[in-house]
Write a structure and sequence with these properties.
Blueprint: H1 14-24, E1 28-33, H2 39-48, E2 52-56, H3 63-71, E3 76-79, E4 82-83, H4 89-102, E5 107-112, H5 125-138, E6 146-148, H6 153-162, E7 165-166, H7 173-183, E8 188-189, E9 192-197, H8 201-213, H9 220-228, H10 233-236, H11 242-248, E10 249-252, H12 254-266, E11 272-276, H13 282-290
Parallel strand pairs: 1-2, 1-11, 2-3, 3-5, 4-5, 5-6, 6-7, 7-8, 9-10, 9-11
Helix pairs in contact: 2-3, 2-13, 4-5, 7-12, 8-11, 12-13
Length: 292
């Protein structure tokens, strides 16, 4: 798909063009750390019919994106996210245009401020993201080809005003409902959700708890968000309560996992990015979930 996805920051197509951008993502995608998916796995994910491959882990450049785009023909690829602290906005803008020239219409640039515990240069994230977007504007990266990592109200509103929408991470459907209320209609809302396909809840939590606990239950942007949703210090302590882990990591058989993931769609999401945990062959689990 090419030029109905404009490269102009003004996006003269208006709401109809924005809706076409949102539709490109499909209702389901998959999320993995950059380098997680081989070329063969990316092709399998595309053939499965998922709409988007999300690449996380704060890559310092867009080369991991290029590899996945080159391995596939049509699937959307998005960063979830490029960290504004370890990348230069002008350089990323140039890289965006290089990818656009080679793979028109297929790449969406997700950016975010990460978390203060990991970044010595950290300052107010809202101001820093806004400044980064200013540079992307100067580099003519289209508004509707940008996404923001967003949890709280201000960043959600910024994602509606200056991007296609928001990509929340580590959030239950209750957050999605509030985020949709904040964003309003016609703005992409694409949360990530972790899954473990295992009908034994104790075993599933044993897989899901460690990657939730480390690092996220020790990072205040995530813990503050969870507390806004009603979780307590006791829920967050000691690796997370069973209730919290169950809200953040869907588990059960494939049909049960699909129902838990789709609760985000029922709560107002346009798309949900499925992160498979505990598997060396995530395409197998994705196939079972999508076909459930």
């Amino acid at each position: 798909m090419t030029s109905d996805i404009s490269t102009s920051t003004s996006d003269p197509g208006g709401d109809s063009a924005k809706a076409a951008h949102i539709a490109r993502f499909g209702t389901h995608g998959t999320w993995g750390w950059h380098g997680r998916f081989s070329a063969d796995e990316a092709r399998q994910i595309e053939e499965l019919g998922l709409g988007t491959i999300w690449l996380g882990g704060s890559p310092t450049d867009l080369q991991p994106v290029r590899a996945i785009l080159a391995a596939t023909d049509r699937i959307t690829v998005a960063t979830g996210i490029v960290n504004i602290w370890n990348t230069d906005a002008a350089v990323i803008g140039d890289e965006f245009h290089a990818l656009e020239a080679d793979f028109p219409g297929r790449f969406y640039l997700g950016i975010g401020a990460g978390h203060p515990e990991a970044t010595a240069e950290y300052r107010k994230p809202y101001d820093a993201v806004r400044d980064y977007l200013d540079v992307l504007d100067e580099k003519s990266v289209p508004v509707h080809r940008r996404l923001l990592a967003a949890l709280g109200s201000r960043m959600l509103r910024l994602s509606a005003d200056r991007a296609l929408g928001a990509h929340p991470y580590l959030t239950p459907p209750a957050h999605t409902k509030g985020a949709r209320d904040e964003l309003g209609a016609g703005v992409l809302l694409a949360p990530e959700h972790k899954v473990v396909v295992d009908t034994n809840p104790v075993a599933a939590r044993a897989v899901g708890r460690p990657p939730v606990d480390q690092p996220y239950l020790h990072l205040r942007n995530y813990t503050s968000n969870l507390k806004r949703l009603g979780y307590t210090d006791a829920d967050i302590a000691d690796g997370g309560s069973d209730e919290l882990i169950d809200a953040l990591v869907a588990h059960g058989d494939a049909a049960s996992v699909r129902a838990q993931v789709d609760a985000h769609l029922a709560a107002g999401a346009d798309h949900v990015a499925i992160q498979v945990l505990g598997s060396e062959t995530p395409v197998d689990e994705l196939t079972a979930i999508i076909r459930a």
